[in-house]
Amino acid sequence: MICISLGNIKFERALEVSKKEDLVEIRADLINLDKKQLYQILNTPAQKVFTFRQSGIEDRIRLDFYRISLEKGVKYIDLDYASDRWILKNLGPSLSQSSVDLILSTHNYERTPSFTELKKKMQELREAGADIVKIACMVNDDEDIVNLMRLYRIPGRKIIIGMGQKGIILRVAALYMGAEFTFAAPENEKGTAPGQLSKKDIQEILSIMGPH
Predict the structure, then answer these.
(1) What's the pLDDT tens digit per position in 67-116?
(2) Which of 128, 132, 54, 134 shows the shortest CA–CA distance to 100?
(3) Is the dihedral of CA 25, 31, 34, 37 positive or negative?
């Protein structure tokens, strides 16, 4: 499945996209939503991933937005394990009583660690309570691609992302290797991460590659 990332766009455009797509990621930190706007997007038909990255906004305010999203029945909550542990601790009891899947994510915008390090990080996120592990790393060479792909051999639900131009192949290959979903930008809009393709671009590549 392809998840459309709603970020770096105006609220009206985000609302429009969420009304016609099957799965969207709400990047509350990038759209700069207020509560009224949040409810509007949450009431659209699409299944949703809710994310509110640390962005100078007080943690208690972000926690409130996460709780609203949880109460409104989003499909996934995505927390950055490095910066959102306070939110994870305070949201945990509500999460455990819901059917929402917790994505715990880690990001490295400079490099891809060794496979041993990646495997250790994956285990750490599982032990912290992740239903789905998300690992996103900047790809600088072919070895990075191989190391990230090897993570798909490890059992469990996951999303493995290669960032940057050299990581684009992983964004498409993910759909063949068992990723929960892959991320794409809305058509004619800026992506939310380096190397993120549009949904149209991914679909065109998939049509050439064949069924996945």
Answers:
(1) 999 999 899 999 999 999 999 999 988 898 899 999 999 999 999 999 99
(2) 132
(3) negative
Cα separations in angstroms, 192 against 51, 184, 197 = 12, 9, 10
**Distance (Å, rounded) from C-alpha 100 to C-alpha 205?**
31
Q: Are 145 and 166 in contact (CB under 8 A)?
A: yes
Look at residue 53 and tell me whether its pLDDT is greater than 90: yes
**CA gyration radius, the chain:** 16
Q: Other C-beta atoms within 10 Å of 97: how many? A: 9
Q: Which residues are CB-contacts of 15 (< 8 A; sequence separation ≥ 6)?
A: 37, 40, 41, 44
**Which amino acid is residue 206, in one-letter code?**
L
Domain 2-209 has CATH 3.40.50.720: no
| Distance set, CA 205 to CA 35, 84, 89, 198 (Å) | 38, 35, 40, 11
Q: What is the pTM of this model?
A: 0.93
What is Dmax (Cα atoms) for the chain? 47
25-32: average pLDDT? 92
Name the residue ranges covered by the structural domains of the chain: 2-209
Q: Is the pLDDT of residue 198 over 80?
A: yes
Alpha helix (H) ranges present in the chain? 11-18, 28-31, 35-42, 59-71, 85-96, 115-127, 142-150, 168-177, 199-209
Q: Which residue carries 């996103």 as its tokens?
A: 136
